[in-house]
Amino acid sequence: PVLQELGQPAAAVAAISGQTRLSVAVYGTQGHAGTVPMAGRKDAVAAAAEAINYVEQRCTPPRHDPAADAEDTMLVCTVGEVRVWPGASNVISSNTNFTVDIRSKSDTERDVTVKDVMTAIERMCAARGMTCVVNRNHDASTTLCDDGITAGLKRATADVYRDVFAGEGGAAAAAVAAGVDADSIVTAALVSGAGHDALAMAEACPIGMLFVRCRDGISHSPLEHSGPEDVAFAGRVLFKYLKRYQSESVLAGERREEL
């Protein structure tokens, strides 16, 4: 959704975020919904809800700024799975399990966030006189895109904007909203919160990526849609990169290896 909020059809990618996955089990005392007083309950669902709320608050920045999103570390935290036992409407839960997915471009920030979340969950359970178990099941470090490739893609993107404003953008011109002028365009490099095949390729060679705007930021869904004008814009960026900047990126990479 960042590209849509920025009003930009495509942008280079600077990095693929690192990721940590936690599994949390909260243990309480099962009882009847009508006979156990509120003050005496050890409700696993209530404890899990408190912890889940903390996860959201810990990972939400104080102010939303789409322009800043383009360059920040994109710390995001998600509780994607919740399982309640026994899962009956008239029974206080004795066991609630949930997962936490934490991602950031900064491995340091991610690690600090993970530790904060784990500590907070254990503290909340202890305050309720309950037991919880937090397991750190998966860690993947951040993968940086090649600086030379990213810089080349950003320059190619700027070239396409110049073509559009000069009346030479072809089909890509429709991707730039009316009223936008050259001075208002910032060719940012985004952070990918999702993993890609480039993760594996990075072990063998330098990588780079170009993101194309999707309607409402929806992907991995039948509702995913990129307009043909945005695809044309991105295609033009790739063409210009391959024609003008690829050799510069390769040479820059070779110079870095020599150093």
Question: What can you see in these coordinates?
Answer:
- The chain has seven helices and eleven strands.
- It has 259 residues and is of the alpha+beta class.
- The strands form three sheets. Strands 2, 4, 5, 7 and 8 form a five-stranded antiparallel β-sheet that branches. Strands 1, 9, 10 and 11 form a four-stranded mixed β-sheet that branches.
- The radius of gyration is 23 Å and the shape is elongated.
Shape: elongated
Give the uncertain stretches in residue-range form: none
Oligomer: single chain
Q: Helix- and strand-based class?
A: alpha+beta
Count of distinct strands: 11
Secondary-structure element order, N to C: HEEEHHEEEEHEEHEHEH
**Strand percentage:** 15-25%
Which whole number gives the mean pLDDT? 90
What integer value in Å does the Rg equal? 23 Å
- Assign a percent range to the helix content: 25-40%
Q: Main β-sheet: number of strands, strand sense, barrel status?
A: 5 strands, antiparallel
Number of helices: 7
Distance between the termini: 38 Å
